[in-house]
Amino acid sequence: MAELMEMPRNDEGIGTAVALLKQRFAERLETGQSIRDQHGHTTTWIETQPPDAVVFVDSAEEVQEVVRICADHRVPIIPFGTGTSLEGHVNAPAGGISVDFSRMDKILAVHPEDMDVVIQPGVTREALNTYLRDTGLFFPVDPGANASLGGMAATRASGTNAVRYGTMKDNVLALKAVLPSGEIVKTGNRARKSSAGYDLTRLIVGSEGTLGLITELTLKLQGIPEAISAATCSFPTVEAACNAVIMTIQMGLPVARIELLDALSVRGVNAYSKLDLPEQPLLLLEFHGSENSVKEQAQTFGEIAEDFGSQGFAFTTKPEDRNRLWQARHDAYWASLALRPGAKGISTDCCVPVSRLAECVTAAQAKAEELGLIAPVVGHVGDGNFHTLPLIMMEDAQEVARAREFVSWLNDLAISMDGTCTGEHGIGQGKAKYLMGELGEGALTMMAAVKRGVDPFNIFNPGKILLSDV
Predict the structure, then answer these.
(1) What share of residues in the chain are helix, strand, coil (percent, to 5)?
(2) What contacts 449, CB < 8 A, 6 or more positions away?
(3) Contact partners, residue 346, CB within 8 Å, separation at least 6
(4) Which residues in 223-243 are b (16+ Cβ under 10 Å) and which e?
(5) pTM of the full structure
(6) If DSSP states are collapsed to H, E and C, what string results for 21-33?
(7) Contact yes or no for 266/279 (Cβ under 8 A)
(8) What pLDDT does residue 470 have?
(9) Are the CB atoms for 392 and 45 separated by under 8 Å?
């Protein structure tokens, strides 16, 4: 479990900043307990640490005002999109001000001929794709939750389409952000590539609000495919399913999505989403292209899967069938929680080279069984990323300790396989203690130097990513 940092509070500065912000923002500055709790971390098992106040901003200029007031009084600032992050990113361990970007939800410009869009950070993934529908374009990064795109950029989000379209780092062309000094930095233009200076866009994408507050994003778009087919395929074991994935990737089959659900996850999805999938390890795939190519891709995958003992292979091009399957996949978290009513889900993820996927997943299942944990597995396995969700009764101290041991063991295992402790959740509070083992002292020293240079008073999302106070 995350061991939350004890951080000193600047009560005098916080009180002064809240009073000044109340004068400026009136009813858009809220201090009620319920709204503060909603803006602390509530998604999984990490303890909630609410801010002292929440301010709802409408523009980049207002973000600058908030930052300047907080900087003057050394008050922490915690950016908030929709609150769907899983590793404590929105907690306020030293108190401070939560800046809610939900009102900054305008789509500023669409350039269909260049296949890009300029938006404010509060635009959600679903809202953007609904807006784009008539243009024949879409934004492909799909983490499952209807997250804000500013939050997705801040955490370098990924999801089901990453195997074909990449993650947020591959799909943000440029951005604007307010720095801890109150200045606005522009990291690039709309050109598809640039060799001009440091890559500040990728520095801020994934920095989890510790370096800048994103106020504008320029995103790549993709053409909506002429045809889409979805396929399901069951396997006798998780190892067989993973080996089929490895072979599919190594053969260069251009899958758009390839998801794994273990037998326990399938059972939960069947009950929650009223499906009748065989309760065996399952691969759920999607292919994009022309009508002929998606059929050929599905058939080729079927032949690969056969070599690994697949059962019940089927594919469909009907939108209603595809949507039902993918909605069920996106609801897998809630479906898994229903497997053990009253339990808390400890969602954790890791990512390994695809060639080590079968070994890592089967080892994780064996370790969970050894520790007596109920831990469904799902994963974006086309790029070696998977999630486990130990279902824990938090009042049982021994079970909590076993879950702590499992999460730590799994992160260390992934790192030992030349992988990462997080493929898409980000570091936040929950993964911070694993960074040293993954990257080493030199990398953390460099990160701390960047943080000190940009945010010398450590007011932007303190206590996240780096364990020690910079």
Answers:
(1) 40, 20, 40
(2) none
(3) 1, 44, 45, 389, 390, 391, 392, 403, 407
(4) eebeebbbbbbbbebbbbbbb
(5) 0.94
(6) HHHHHHHHEECCH
(7) yes
(8) 43
(9) yes
Angle (CA) 275-276-281 rounded to 5° is 105
Evaluate whether 260 touches 242 at the Cβ level (below 8 Å). Answer: yes
Q: Which one-letter amino acid corresponds to residue 132?
A: L
10 Å CB burial of residue 448 (0-12, 13-18, 19+) is middle
The tokens for 209 are 């609000």
296 contact partners, CB below 8 Å, separation of at least 6: none
Q: Is 173 helix (H, G, I), strand (E, B) or coil?
A: strand
Q: State the number of CA atoms in the 13 A half-sphere of 284 facing the CB.
A: 27
Residue 106 CB-density burial (10 A; 0-12 exposed, 13-18 middle, 19+ buried): middle
Give the whole-angstrom CA distance, residue 457 versus residue 98: 17
Axis-axis angle for helices 397-416, 357-370 (nearest 10): 160
Q: Indicate the average pLDDT of the chain.
A: 94
Q: Which long-range contacts (CB under 8 A, 24 or more apart) does 314-323 make?
A: 314/231, 314/232, 314/233, 315/229, 315/230, 315/231, 315/232, 315/285, 316/229, 316/230, 316/231, 317/227, 317/228, 317/229, 317/230, 317/291, 319/228, 321/230, 322/228, 322/229, 322/230, 322/286
Q: Are 152 and 167 in contact (CB under 8 A)?
A: no
Sign of CA dihedral 425, 405, 262, 248: positive
Backbone CA torsion sign across 338, 341, 344, 349? negative
Q: Would you state the torsion angle of the CA atoms of residues 312, 318, 323, 325, taken in this order, to the nearest 10 degrees?
A: -10
What percentage of the chain exceeds 70 in pLDDT?
Answer: 98
* Helix ranges restricted to H, 81-178: 125-132, 149-154, 162-165, 168-171
**d(C-alpha 456, C-alpha 462), whole Å:** 11
pLDDT for res 43: 77
The single residue listed with the structure tokens 């939350």 is 4
Cα–Cα dist 274/373, whole Å? 25
CA distance 306 to 236: 11
Most confident option among 112-121, 242-251, 303-312, 461-470: 112-121
What is the full DSSP assignment across 278-346? -SS-EEEEEEEE-HHHHHHHHHHHHHHHHTTT-EEEEEE--HHHHHHHHHHHHTHHHHHHTTSTTPEE-
Enclosing H/E stretch for 378: strand 377-380
**Nearest residue to 114 via CA among 225, 193, 221:** 221
pLDDT, tens digit, 9 for 90 and up, residues 353-393: 999 999 999 999 999 999 999 999 999 999 999 999 999 99
Question: How far is Cα 91 from Cα 451, in angstroms, rounded to an integer?
Answer: 19
